[in-house]
What we know:
Elements: E1 2-11, H1 15-25, E2 30-34, E3 50-51, H2 62-72, H3 79-99, E4 113-121, E5 126-132, H4 138-152, E6 156-159, E7 161-175, E8 178-192, E9 198-208, H5 229-236, E10 241-242, E11 247-254, H6 264-267, E12 271-273, H7 281-284, H8 294-306, E13 318-321, H9 327-333, H10 335-345, E14 354-363, E15 367-368, E16 374-376, E17 382-388, E18 393-394, H11 406-428, H12 440-451, H13 458-472, E19 476-477, H14 479-496, H15 510-534, E20 543-544, H16 552-555, E21 557-563, E22 573-579
Parallel strand pairs: 1-2, 1-9, 2-6, 9-17, 15-18, 19-20
Antiparallel strand pairs: 3-5, 4-5, 7-8, 8-9, 10-21, 11-14, 12-13, 13-14, 16-17, 21-22
This protein binds flavin-adenine dinucleotide.
Amino acid sequence: MQVHKYDVVIVGAGGAGMRAAIESGQRARTAVLTKLYPTRSHTGAAQGGMCAALANVEEDNWEWHTFDTVKGGDYLVDQDAAEVMAKEAIDAVLDLEKMGLPFNRTPEGRIDQRRFGGHTRDHGKAPVRRSCYAADRTGHMILQTLYQNCVKHNVEFFNEYYVLDMLTVDEEFTVDGVTRIRKRVAGVVSYDLATGELHVFQAKSVVFATGGVGKVYKTTSNAHTLTGDGMGIAFRRGIPLEDMEFFQFHPTGLAGLGILLSEAARGEGAILRNSEGERFMERYAPTIKDLAPRDIVARSMANEVREGRGAGPNKDYVLLDLTHLEPAHIDAKLPDITEFARTYLGVEPYTEPVPVFPTAHYAMGGIPTNIKAEVLQHNDTVVPGLYAAGEVACVSVHGSNRLGTNSLLDINVFGKRAGIAAAEYAVTAEFVEIPDNPLVETERLLDTMRSSEGGERVAQIRQELQDIMDANVQVFRTEQTLKEALEVIDKLEERYTRVTVQDKGKRFNLDLLEAVELGFLLDMAKVMTAAALHRQESRGGHFREDYPERDDENFMTHSMAYKDPSATETSGVRLETKPVVFTRYQPMERKY
Ligand SMILES: Cc1cc2nc3c(=O)[nH]c(=O)nc-3n(C[C@H](O)[C@H](O)[C@H](O)COP(=O)(O)OP(=O)(O)OC[C@H]3O[C@@H](n4cnc5c(N)ncnc54)[C@H](O)[C@@H]3O)c2cc1C
């Protein structure tokens, strides 16, 4: 066993992890552990933009942005966090500009801005230009810029190191004269892909920035690597997961494939049509139409298909029409995504509408944090030394539905906050002693899979999991579909204990790691489904056909899912609640 010692260990080298590393690296001895080479992280696939009320092209301000974020999230947003994000957005964009990011420019040389769903002028009056962008490769530019700046600041990277476990100790603490127990972080355990060796990283602070969990679904915009590892590790170690029932389906995935066509297309003027050529969003969101938030557009599309107005031979998709836009405009603003339509569907967007259907896209839920990016063990109990930021975290700025371009913003604002807070904590804190036998859990996990002769295959179980999630935990849900899904997941979990890995070697054993990742996917699918079953209302991205209304009286609360084997009714997931933070906005009916 090799042991390393750092003040701060950051797990994940996407946008959130590297933004944190730039801050932490300048203040404390920092290591970044990442299962992917940093510039392969999913942030690099982000297309459309990152929003900030710069008011470069039209009037705007951070308060409108906060309001849009709160309303977009169907009032489940913690309003203190949304305020922080909207205010700090401006510096977040300017920081990137100073680091060298090549944003698109206006003719006057300012950072250009475009429209995106749910971002409006003066509390919903009309769409506003708030998204800063670099063609339709904004995430790519952010990731490259952050990586270069990490290199500049001598951040140490451990590439292709898979973190598989977190080490914690229990400690007593006293509030209001009552003594309670909380966790404190001591480090992480990671697996070096090249050698198959396990390494312990002892750290005063650990930042989780491991991204999302889209691979629980079959039809998804997410990379193969988004398997919810960070959420899974935290959950297994007794940290709750917040608001996991809220998963975003992005309206415009390429039909049948799920590959994303950015909302920037609609921001630049593209229109959704049904088989009759009707611009159907006019019926669902009369004011902002195709630029309504994603939950509303995705449901409207699914509804058009259900009611028989889908296009194509099987009437199972709708059409994204860009044919009225100038080809030169398309080439300048949307080069990559129009190329995707040509390559993967053989459709020419200049002259033909593109078949699209909702695709699983983004986890609104995750590891609960406060606005300092500190992880919460219970509603207000912080785990000293533990931080989370980015898609793995739930701070919660997205509530029950994220607005487009708010995630690239979230990773920059809260990535930076996490990096600063983790380093500042590490400067004064002492190392926590590594528990005895730190590898015991990880070795047990790996040994079972290496030695199992049970004959179950990873690919088969994963496919069955994705099939049931696509069928039953989708845009529309009911108690029946969710209960069925839980039963299937339970059976898959049981089969997972007999999973057999064919590669028994030590070097570059991706076969083994895929099996480990499948374990996280199973855990997260279970949490998402159990939380969806528990929430008997419809809000944002979570639509229960058996409870079609929002129910503020009973469900204006975050859900907190804990691992608890005694909760047998819900497959070992215990659900509690946490109050939503309100500052200036009272819930209203959500109309666009
Ligand atoms: C196709 C697509 C387009 C998008 N477009 C936009 C957009 O235009 N605007 C917007 O705001 N949002 C967009 N999003 C969402 C946004 O890109 C993501 O939510 C965000 O980039 C996530 O960043 P992150 O740093 O949290 O995670 P990621 O960038 O996914 O990085 C995760 C990191 O964690 C590491 N990791 C994971 N597990 C482990 C482990 N076990 N051990 C070690 N390391 C691990 C990985 O190696 C990786 O470095 C888009 C998403 C997709 C999929």
